[in-house]
Amino acid sequence: MFLVSWFGLVTLWIVGFCLVGEGSKFRHWSNAVFPVASLATIIVLAAAPANYDVVDKTRYAAEFETMSFAEPGEVFDTTVTDGREPAFLLVNWLIGSFTHDADVYFLIVAAFCAIMLTIALWMILGSGWQTAVVLYVTVCFGFFLDYSSFLVRQGLSISFLFLGLALVLRNARVVWILVVLGLGLLFHWSAIAPAIVILVVRLVRLRTDILLGAWVIFSIAYFTGLNARLAGPLGSGIEQIEVYSDSELARSYSGGTNRPIFWLLSAGPLFVAYAAVKRRLAHLPEWYPKLLNAFILLNCYFLALGFVYFSDRLAAFSWSLIPVLVSVPVLRYTGRFHTVLSLALLVAFGAWALYFGSFGTLLNR
């Protein structure tokens, strides 16, 4: 219950940010240090020791223990012979060079993911109090806790890609964006397409209306199963598509494929953000349309491969943007209903957390 009490205290702080006016000294960046640091720490303490009953985590624990005793040459041999992601293997070996304890390993990985997320959010938003609120929403949303806990390979990859997107939105030099995105895909090969998407958002002037039209076409293919037929030739050439579209996986993944609930989870935030952009709300930052474009393209990647089992792990590349995508129009709004909308945002994500069990890992600590 310690983490629940701590989270409750942070909740009061976050509510305070939403209640006060724009010019309030309470919103000074120094007052955001406590809630931001607290939320990052809560993520680490909740995610690291949890979910050992999930097969992914036990597999990663066993792999870490093996790599921690390996010689440097074995790390690269595994990359070459098995096609494993070199950055992930190298991190395993580096952490294993000073500890063989899987609990410490997961603690370090969770801390790295939380720090990367915090840096990326503060870089994007340019505001301490808004970073605190969006980080709070992210904890309530729940997905980041999972990817910091037992889906660590993809969690590390998403952390780098999110930082790369932050650099894109802040018009950083392309060379730095390439370095960060390159590191991201070296943690998980499924990040190759998302990394290219983020780079395209930086290099190409994209029209949101056209992207939305493409998203509608991909949605039709998703619901009709046409995506599986169109991607059929890829299955014979790309091993991972062939593996994860194998009907035998239905035994371990009972949710099925091309799931309507996943589409709804994607469509809701998209149309909230699109409505904000189309209304040309003056309070939106200039980088917000690029964020929306990135979300649409990343979600098209998921829709195109929605026929594979565990497709939610592909959707995670776009879903990881939902907290900031939905929160920015609300937090940047300065009209008379600012307080009501901000509190509604917190209530909505709090209700989501209670209904879907995002706070489950907090209750056990």
UniProtKB/TrEMBL annotation:
Source domain of life: Bacteria
Alphabetized InterPro entries for the sequence: EpsG-like
Record's keyword terms, sorted: Membrane, Transmembrane, Transmembrane helix
UniProt keyword annotation of Transmembrane helix present: yes
Classification via Pfam families: EpsG
TM regions (residue ranges): 28-50, 104-123, 129-145, 175-201, 210-228, 261-279, 291-310, 316-333, 340-363
Protein name in UniProt: EpsG family protein
Lineage: Bacteria, Bacillati, Actinomycetota, Actinomycetes, Micrococcales
